[in-house]
Amino acid sequence: MNNNTVSVEIFVDVDKCKNISDIEKQIMEKTKAAAKELLVKIFEAKEAKILKDKRLIKKTKVLRYLFTIFGPVRFYRYKVKDSFGKFFYALDRSIGLEANSSFSPKLADRAVYLSTMYPYRQAKDLLCHETDSSLDHRSLWRLIQKKGVKLRQQDIDEYESLYTHSRPVKSTEQAYESLVLEVDGTGISSKQGKGKWMEAKLAIIYTGKQLCSKNSKVSRYELTNKKIFASVDTWDNFGKMTSYSAQRHYNIKKAENVLLLSDGDPLIKRFHTDYMPGSIHQCDHYHLKKKLRQVYSQYPNVLEKFLSLIQKRKHEKLPYLIKMTKVNGLISEADEEMLTSYINSNMDSIWAVDRLRKKMPKELLRVGSGAVEKNVDIAIARRFKLRGMSWSKEGAANLLALRLLYLNGKDLSLAA
Q: I need a surface site. Which of 56, 90, 260, 364 has the fewest CB within 10 A?
């Protein structure tokens, strides 16, 4: 054994291992205790080598507590003074321990992952069970805020470099023939008061659809090269972020055909004209028909006439027929105004996919935005819209930024 090696011994009393459960418990307890002891020995050995540097003057020895994947560890390390008169902990700097952090990097990654998947208290319980530690859920919340702020600032700096400083986007060299972008929004409860809410915006971009199973009764497709973008910021900032990311990851300016699907909301229409002007905007038929059903549910024959006009691509007649139903007293003036405004603003988008026929694969030419609605459920609803939850804008934004790392298949250590 050389001077660069540290070791610990593990002893297990066989008489205490009466069954497999006892054996597993003994091994687990002894292994964790040994791991923590080994960790401290490694710290001591590394610090001893660091302090051989004569430019460093040892001052006081200070205790530090650290939560690790093996459990809580306490150890002493020296505060030192360098030749410039600066004080710091040489060991912390050498092994990459953040100042004022209670978590080791590995445990921090695990804590971030659990917090993006589960409510903070449940994430805390899981983490405590895994590490035999006693943690407070607020320590996880503080960790998320710290890492989320840093990650979001990186994103803001990136897209502002384009829109404020006119710096070109470093795009991928690959150019896709066809791209589909789907956009939607959903409300999440705000801490500002009962009944108050904020809108979370979400977009997905993908290049194709792959059939999951040829034998299933219902055809299910998997989106290829999919990425998710989401924010609780304004539509303007969300548009900047999404268009920047679309150029960076998909080189969207070189794509021959870009289809944008949405529910026809005026704010999303503006998102289309301001940030995706080269795309073809398709209004989701589900939302169009839903609005018609809400108004004409008591008149099935009239409703069927409207749906037939849409199917036969005679949607330009819709405003006139809506007006006629108002004249005949079937609907209110408010309903007429709402429907007419919605349809007129989306008139050119009701069958916009027709302009892309024979240009894009058939499986991408859809008139529904079900894919983005499913992703809204996965990315936002399952974490932010559970019973009793309410959010500050900053808290939701920080957690959402980290959750997207996981959903996009990126390493959570990128949030370090």
A: 56
